[in-house]
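for the recovery benchmark. tokens below, seq after
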């Protein structure tokens, strides 16, 4: 019976369930940014304080990830993921009852703890259900949740916020998570089946496990690439709805609908194309995933500049589609690099470290920094800071190609 944990049918079911949870993850995360203008007006906030709502969530998310990742490698990954879904869903619903800025800030920090519980274990869990040769495409399917969930968050936030108020938006998206948490609780972990070839007891202290990861050059440089990308994408994701509202004079409902539609179309096509091309190129060279991501970042950099600088709405939205397409190109490949250079016995810890640093250096700080720049120079000038970090992400990807082959071989032999 245990071997059924990795049967094709059960593997597809597990992927579908975890993808559904990840969709909700990004819906709950992005809906906050869709209603930024409404919260700003209701609580009379500066852009710095508004941006800190997003930063506080990310700070809590990244700070709780290392401990949760260590627990995930030593305990029951499925139970940890299920509890995380329940916690963040309950906290999202509580956001709808927030009477003021401080209570809303507290609720969003708790959302971060719940999402970290799921985020540290879910990529490795998904990867364990499938063979190594299919990981790029499978993780691309899993990470379709980023564009699709983000788009749905923008659409729901814009429509619900416009018609019923921003508090109703939080209440309505929080409840479904409790049902998904129950479904995840009963998921069977392939690590418990004894069929994983690299499976071995996990030992060692928290500190020793993380020290080993920091000696992995491919893991470190790949994480820096993802951090640079996350700074840009986090800043754009949180401030573009407000940019459309202020600069192009779109109301909250229409601005979020347009931006959400662009995000879902560009995200789906970019994510699937990147995963497919990455798997094909990886068969020819160990650098395949990194080359796909690096060239995607380079292509997206000038297009992002034009999207922000364009005076016409049509020019802005067209360029934003192609900029997002090339940014999402990297999603499956770079996450697959983490899986491939990390031993199976510490994969949750690897994703925990990755989560910590990509958010500590990325979207934990970019909303507040861009909000501060906006208070000083205006929102358009502030957003023009993001393409430089996209170019930096490309540089890190190309640098990582120098180490990837050796680190992959080391991970397979541990």
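predicted aa per position
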């Amino acid at each position: 019976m245990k071997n059924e944990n990795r049967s094709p049918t059960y593997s597809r079911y597990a992927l579908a369930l975890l993808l559904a949870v990840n969709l909700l993850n990004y819906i709950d995360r992005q809906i906050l940014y869709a209603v930024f203008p409404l919260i700003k007006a209701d609580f009379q906030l500066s852009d710095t304080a508004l941006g800190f709502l997003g930063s506080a969530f990310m700070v809590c998310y990244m700070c709780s990830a290392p401990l949760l990742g260590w627990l995930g490698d030593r305990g029951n990954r499925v139970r940890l993921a299920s509890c995380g879904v329940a916690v963040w869903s309950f906290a999202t619903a509580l956001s709808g009852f927030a009477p003021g800025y401080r209570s809303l800030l507290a609720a969003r920090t708790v959302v971060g703890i719940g999402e970290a519980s799921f985020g540290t274990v879910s990529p490795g869990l998904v990867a364990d259900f499938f063979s190594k040769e299919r990981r790029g495409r499978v993780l691309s399917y899993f990470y379709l949740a980023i564009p699709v969930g983000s788009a749905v968050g923008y659409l729901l936030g814009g429509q619900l916020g416009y018609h019923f108020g921003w508090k109703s938006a939080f209440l309505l998206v929080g409840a479904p998570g409790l049902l998904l948490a129950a479904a995840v609780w009963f998921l069977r972990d392939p690590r418990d089946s004894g069929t994983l070839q690299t499976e071995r007891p996990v030992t060692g202290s928290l500190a020793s496990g993380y020290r080993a990861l920091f000696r992995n050059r491919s893991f470190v440089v790949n994480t820096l690439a993802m951090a640079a990308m996350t700074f840009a994408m986090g800043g754009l994701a949180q401030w573009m709805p407000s940019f459309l509202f202020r600069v192009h004079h779109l109301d909250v409902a229409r601005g979020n609908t347009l931006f959400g539609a662009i995000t879902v179309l560009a995200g789906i096509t970019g994510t699937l194309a990147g995963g497919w091309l990455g798997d094909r190129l990886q068969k020819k060279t160990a650098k395949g995933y990194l080359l796909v991501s690096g060239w995607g970042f380079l292509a997206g950099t000038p297009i992002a500049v034009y999207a922000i600088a364009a005076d016409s709405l049509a020019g802005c939205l067209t360029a934003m589609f192609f900029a997002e397409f090339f940014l999402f190109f990297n999603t499956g490949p770079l996450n697959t690099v983490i899986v491939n250079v990390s031993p199976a016995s510490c994969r949750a810890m690897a994703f925990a470290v990755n989560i910590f640093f990509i958010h500590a250096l990325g979207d934990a700080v970019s909303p507040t920094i861009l909000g501060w720049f906006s208070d000083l120079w205006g929102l358009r000038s502030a957003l023009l800071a993001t393409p430089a970090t996209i170019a930096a992400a490309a540089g890190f990807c190309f640098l990582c190609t120098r180490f990837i082959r050796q680190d992959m071989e080391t991970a397979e032999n541990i």
